[in-house]
Amino acid sequence: MIEARKALVVMAIEKTLLEVGRPTYHEVLTKLKEDYNCYLSDCYENPEYLSNVLKELYGQSRLAIIASIKKYLDELSTQEDIANFIIKISE
Amino acid sequence: MQTRLEKILSQRFLLFSLVSTGLAILIAEYIGKETAIVFTNWIFVPIPGAMLVLAIISAKKHGRTGDHGKAWIAFAIFAASWFIAEQVWLVEELFYHEKPFPSAADFFYIVGYPAYFIFAMLYLKPFKNMITKKLIVFASLVAVAVLIPSMYWTLESSTDEDQFSIILGAVYPVCDSIVLIPAVIGMRLFFGGQVNFLWALMLVGILVEVIADTGFQYFSLDDSMYTGHPVDILFLWSYILFAFGIYDNIKVFNSKMNSYKNKEELR
Known about the structure:
The structure holds two protein chains of two kinds. By secondary structure, chain A is mainly alpha-helical. Chain A is 75% helix and 0% strand.
């Protein structure tokens, strides 16, 4: 079950980043790997990594991207782990 | 990621480009009006050309996916439109020996503005949640503050020109002010982020363009405006600022994805 929710989180992040643009998506993936040695799927446990990478690129406007990810996960926000992910990524 | 040293060096190169372009025009002007006309017309080939090439590279890199992909296509259209305008100007003046203002070049300059505006709108679209009414009002006030003196000088000083030239001359500061709004928003929005440098240069580039357009109209009053006039330095500077902004953005998104054999592994 956790794996399924993890996959949904990754999908929400991917969809949001690709909506911005493919280079943004690639840059985020690369920065996650280089700065934190982690993959997109690891952002489920470490949402702050994604938040930091987005901040480095877009400054405070990263919150708009985070809001979009949250929107995709809206229906699952009652699940505790998803709710925690949303809280952590918004910090 | 771009290191601090690379960033400083890139800005030094930008400064060098601005100073050397300005000096080159002033030297040509010092040699003589004829030299200035020929030199300046030809320098408007490589500089807007560089902006066009960088815009195409950026558009190609982004592809058609996502809002930023579409945004860079719009920017490439803007760059192409202004590049064509500069070449029409050159042909009109150097080959047909016609007065290049007003001319077909104006059509391409004006067509460029909506393309630039679309670029800005699409670039800012993913961040629309962060664009508050307060920010829009602030950006609009900046645009109006820039437009008022520009329009005053444009209209006040155009008494000797024909009606069409006066209207055409007034269209430019209005268009500049409109595209200034998203530039101010972008600058404020991405403060602290790496893409901020692009928007800072876009903003300064448009401000320089406003001054140049006002100056162009002002000096056209007594027929003292000609290609190679120091006002042209400002037009060239705006192209250089745009080009460096795009270059920086290309570098920001120059991810080393290709160094990873299996891209799927990064997911």
